[in-house]
């Protein structure tokens, strides 16, 4: 059995091309899709991520506004800034870069983002709508994972998917997206008893646990599809790639798996929001 490498860069390139064409059409109508990124504090990795997102916007025809707030910003000040962005018609998407400093109530800040501008899928309202099957903006990494499976025509319906991790912007929403596509979904986490047994039952494995090389090859059944959504120091994912590769029918590399598709979906959702605004103007 030859293992298929699921190339997230290839998937992202196609999404970006479509986004660029749609952004150009909007510009011709006088609407410039715009993503506002809010960064609090001086975390170096967060600065890098925000810079990458800004460059991606520039490359694919979107505007971006970067708001950098000081480390000592309070929850109230952050919420007030987000509300200002909500009320600005020139801004179509708002991204609050995670993590924020520990003294800030991150959940309260996320909830301040207007539903129509929640392009990163972080609000509980947006999550609820996505879970019910009609949300417009699923969290970007989960959306990217489904896009990779679809791009490579990997069946989801009727398959047993095991998701390792239950974070509110990755593990939980990807579980709902898989469930909405008629997979049977098992969600595992730090309190799961006999995790290797559960993983061994999976047709599709989504690793989102935040531990390097955590999923071992002897946990995985022959022919499983493995999506590694982790990224750890040293450019390694949550899956032990070397031991899992021979067992898998398909596997994502790290880097180059869901990561690039996450950014592609952030831009896609921003253009979706701008198109929605354009329709409302016409009506």
Describe this structure in words.
The protein is α/β, with parallel strands linked by helices and about 280 residues long. It has two domains: about 30-120, Rossmann fold, CATH 3.40.50.10860; about 140-260, 3-Layer(aba) Sandwich (Rossmann fold). It is about 45% helix and about 15% strand. The protein has ten helices and nine strands. The protein has helices spanning about 10-30, 45-60, 75-85, 105-110, 125-130, 140-150, 170-180, 195-200, 240-245, 260-280; strands at about 5, 35-40, 65-70, 95, 160-165, 185-190, 205, 225-230, 250. The chain has a six-stranded parallel sheet with strand order 1-9-8-7-5-6.
Average the pLDDT over all residues and give the rounded result. 96
Total count of strands: 9
Query: Which spans of ≥5 residues are poorly predicted at pLDDT below 50?
Result: none
Largest sheet strand order: 1-9-8-7-5-6
N- to C-terminal distance: 55 Å
Structural class: alpha/beta
Q: In CATH, what is the homologous superfamily of the largest domain?
A: NAD(P)-binding Rossmann-like Domain
Shape: globular
CATH C-level class of the largest domain: Alpha Beta
What's the architecture of the largest domain in CATH terms?
3-Layer(aba) Sandwich
- Biggest beta-sheet profile: 6 strands, parallel
At the fold tier of CATH, the topology name of the largest domain is: Rossmann fold
Seen as an oligomer or otherwise, the chain set is single chain
Radius of gyration: 19 Å
Total helical elements: 10
- SS strand fraction: 15-25%
Summarize this, please?
The protein is built from ten helices and nine strands.
